[in-house]
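Fill in residues.
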């Protein structure tokens, strides 16, 4: 179906522009019947689609001022696609458990391929959260061998699949029996109950889902104005509690 030949055969040299548009980026076909005029007109049509792309990346170059909420510099917002590769990669690198008593729990971090997050960066943040003095305990990050659980950053689509039969609606995160499935959209954007404090929301979602992995179930708000227990479903409702991302919010930095 080469319209150029039809036009050329009809001898409509004046409509060469139309011919070029119809022909698109195709090269002149064999046969040598194409008149030189038509070929000449066809050439400018080729670079035309290439003009717009250089214009669009320009706004990205704008430097953003970091957002500070509750005294903390907030992570940069990232746009997360609904679906990524569907397969996980184990995040590279290892991390020692914090010092102190109690069992050392081995775990690994996975990141779905194709998500706009650096696997190592995500893993380091997870590790910091888990080993915080206010956190659940002592966690050693590994890349192989037996692990108690994994923390898996997942696209909304993969979250939906991983969390079945629980309905996550592309929004929630879950514990599915061996993975703390962290929905990358929420990781990127947070949750309304945490407002613009994305850093605290991230601490909450990791502590909460890993809490399930350690055998903890949901609890309610213990009283008006109290810190919400980490195992309360804080993204659904805070009731009369205040947001709190930590299992042990009152633990001092010095003591265990
Ligand atoms: Zn839960």
């Amino acid at each position: 179906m080469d319209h150029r030949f039809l036009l050329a055969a009809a001898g409509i040299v004046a409509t060469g522009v139309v011919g070029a548009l119809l022909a698109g980026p195709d090269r002149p076909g064999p046969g040598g019947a194409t008149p030189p005029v038509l070929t000449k007109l066809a050439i400018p049509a080729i670079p035309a689609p290439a003009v717009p792309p250089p214009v669009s990346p320009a706004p990205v170059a704008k430097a953003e001022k970091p957002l500070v909420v509750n005294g903390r510099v907030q992570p940069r917002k990232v746009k997360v696609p609904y679906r990524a590769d569907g397969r996980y990669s184990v995040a590279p690198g290892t991390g020692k458990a914090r010092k102190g008593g109690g069992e050392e729990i081995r775990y690994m971090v996975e990141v779905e391929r194709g998500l706009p997050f650096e696997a190592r960066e995500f893993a380091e943040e997870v590790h910091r959260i888990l080993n915080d003095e206010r956190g659940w305990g002592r966690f050693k990050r590994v890349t192989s061998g037996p692990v108690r659980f994994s923390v898996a950053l997942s696209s909304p689509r993969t979250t939906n699949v991983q969390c079945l039969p629980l309905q996550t609606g592309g929004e929630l995160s879950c514990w599915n029996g061996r993975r703390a499935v962290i929905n990358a959209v929420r990781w990127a954007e947070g949750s309304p109950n945490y407002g613009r404090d994305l850093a605290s929301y991230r601490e909450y979602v990791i502590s909460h889902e890993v809490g399930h992995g350690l055998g903890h179930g949901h609890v309610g708000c213990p009283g008006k104005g109290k810190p919400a227990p980490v195992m309360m479903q804080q993204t659904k409702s805070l009731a009369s509690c205040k947001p709190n991302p930590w299992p042990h919010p009152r633990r001092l930095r010095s003591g265990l």
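The helical segments are 3-10, 16-23, 36-45, 119-131, 156-163, 184-189, 198-213.
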